[in-house]
Write a structure and sequence with these properties.
Helix 6 links the parallel strand 3 and strand 4. 46% of the residues lie in helices and 15% in strands. Helix 2 runs parallel beside helix 8 and helix 4 runs parallel beside helix 8. The chain contains 14 helices and ten strands. It has 366 residues and is an alpha/beta fold. It binds fructose -6-phosphate (F6R).
Length: 366
Amino acid sequence: EKGGYKHFMLKEIHEQPRAIADTIRGRVLPDASKVVYKELGISFEDLALTQRIYLVACGTSYHACLIGKYMIENMAETPVEVDIASEFRYRNVPFEEGSLFIAITQSGETADTLAALRFAKKSRVKTLAICNVVGSTASREADGVFYTHSGPEIGVASTKAFTCQIVALYLLTLAMAKAKRIFTADLYSGFLRHLIMLPRMAEEALKLEDKIMELAKEVYRKQNFLYLGRGPLYPVALEGALKLKEISYIHAEGYPAGEMKHGPIALVEEGFPVVFIVSDDLYFDKTLSNMQEIKARDGFIITISDSKDEKLKKLSDRFIYVEGINTYLNTVLFTIPLQLLAYHVAVLRGCDVDQPRNLAKSVTVE
Ligand code: F6R
């Protein structure tokens, strides 16, 4: 049942290329000219008329929402609010005309996410669920449903469901950008061609496993970790930290790298592990200077990057190169080594990876 893998989590990490391909299949024309709208669970007209989006979820699915915000605001030029479902449901949000509420939930059964969805429906806002489990409560109650096709996720820690949620958001963003006539046809099909490359590139990222295993052996006795990233890589930092803490019980925090000076840097002392998730983007130089500050305090810098910049490599104690595609899809590719790191650290610590203590796969109570 685990397909030769020691744990469901490891199997599910390795299933990502296929899960992503299944989520894309049937939704993009083979020549990359177009997203097939009717598969999105919402009409072309509704997408064109959407003025504001609310993305709401819990846990790992909330991290997907945060990535969605960067995608939708930048590519579809539509403002996005992101909230944790347990907060949103009690916030009495005054929805504006033209709002679209999107719940992201693997199980479709998370109590707080369902309550937030019901609140939106009661407020007569159009609702969409990005959901993995067919026929789940969220998929039945939302006006539209966009299924991720990850296949069943058994490991308590979400892996393939998360990366497929990012793919769903990317498809939705491109469809919206098209509906709003934001992109030229070339730009649009360029972004779709990138998406078609993603399963193969995810396969490449999985080949980092041996290197990650070596790294895990070096760090698995550490008691604290800090994960830092900026822009769309900030939620990736949050997700890397959550994966580590939930299955290895090591205290880990994710932070936007630019916030480091406002508090977390106080933690850094000799050997303190800091994982930088960094890309050659507008934040690059700023993140390098954050790294210098960690270095000056003898922190242990682990870098995950698609850049081969020499300064970056020199500042890093351990450097994991990941071949990238574009800013948005790199969130998927950079997540893979972080999942593997959490997994191998947890195994070395003798933890029950598939059934971490105190956690349930689907949180159906408030
Ligand atoms: C973390 C994890 C949880 C879930 C959260 C939401 O690895 O699995 O944080 O992401 O409980 O679950 P869904 O997506 O089913 O609503």
